[in-house]
Specification:
Elements lengths: L14 H12 L19 H29 L7 H11 L4 H4 L12 H6 L2 H16 L5 H18 L3 H11 L21 H12 L6 H15 L9 H11 L14 H12 L1 H4 L4 H5 L12 H7 L1
Helix pairs in contact: 6-7, 7-10, 8-12, 10-11, 11-12
Length: 307
């Protein structure tokens, strides 16, 4: 059947509006519902957050304490036993041994006769006089002068030779006091000792290092003792002159005719530069007196024992 063209058209049914209204009315408020959307996640409590952080920190602290306790119980602490620490340091670095090592026990006091004499006021007086005269030469400083004076006066006391003789011989033989000085004939050191003649005879007694001041002076004063014969300790002009000529090797004077002047040279050095040792006395007056007679005995036995 064909529709009447003149009939009025039916009114449209409001489906869209009704459907939309139904959807809006039917849906619940999404703000009250939990969902996966950004605004749908509920906020975490701040107290719960702080408790979580505190719990984590407590776990870390507890683990650290447990590790420390385990290390202490299974391993020896570095400073638990100080001697072992010192030993390990000195083994790794030997230079620290002198610093870290305990102080050595005090050495026993030397009570020998020589030690007593060296500590005596007279020895100190003679040593200081010898030192002062060495300094006046202008060839050595105070420290070197003190060292030479100690050895020279000590050996003078041991051998019974006046220090003035040793002083004069040193200046005559080696006016600049050069320890390793060597003459054109091979004599060595402060008192110009001939190795070819004296090393074989005296090296077992005094050593072989003639360039050492201590050793050289031991040789020189001992040799003077052999040539200046004065068992009583009183040195006469004749004793001194004869002994000094022998010391110089001037017996006949055939090799060096002027060697007979050697005692005069020694005398002039002492009188010119030995004012502290001899004062206003002449050389022979200075040495012509009983000198340490019997101090160490007159024979070589006691002299050797002193060394």
């Amino acid at each position: 059947m064909c529709p009447d063209p003149d009939a009025p058209l039916p009114a449209p049914t409001p489906l869209a509006a009704e459907s939309s209204s139904e959807r809006r009315d039917a849906a619940r408020d999404r703000r009250a519902a939990a969902g996966s959307g950004r605004r749908g996640v509920p906020k975490e409590s701040i107290w719960r957050r702080w408790l979580g952080i505190a719990g984590r920190d407590l776990i870390i602290i507890a683990a650290s304490i447990a590790a420390i306790i385990a290390a202490v119980t299974t391993m020896r602490p570095i400073f638990a036993n100080q001697p072992k620490v010192v030993a390990s340091l000195t083994k790794a670095m030997p230079a620290t041994k002198a610093v870290l090592a305990p102080a050595p026990a005090a050495a026993p006091k030397d009570t020998s006769h020589l030690a007593q004499v060296v500590a005596s006021p007279q020895f100190q007086k003679d040593k200081e006089a010898f030192k002062a005269d060495l300094i006046k030469t202008g060839q050595v400083d105070s420290a070197r002068a003190d060292s030479i004076a100690f050895y020279a006066v000590r050996e003078s006391y041991i051998e019974g030779i006046p220090p003035a003789v040793v002083f004069g011989v040193m200046l005559t033989e080696n006016a600049k006091f050069v320890s390793g000085a060597m003459s054109n004939v091979g004599a060595v050191g402060l008192m110009q000792i001939y190795p070819k003649v004296w090393l074989k005879a005296l090296s077992s007694k005094f050593g072989k290092d003639l360039a050492s001041d201590s050793t050289n002076i031991k040789y020189g004063v001992y040799i003077l003792k052999q040539y200046i014969k004065s068992d009583s300790g009183s040195v006469t002009q004749k004793n001194a002159s004869s002994g000094l000529l022998h010391y110089n090797g001037c017996v006949t004077g055939s090799n060096t005719p002027s060697c007979h002047n050697y005692p005069t040279k020694v005398k002039s050095y002492v009188e010119k530069l030995g004012s502290s040792i001899c004062g206003n006395k002449t050389f022979y007056d200075c040495i012509a007196k009983p000198f340490m007679a019997g101090l160490f005995g007159k024979n070589e036995t006691s002299s050797g024992a002193a060394h």
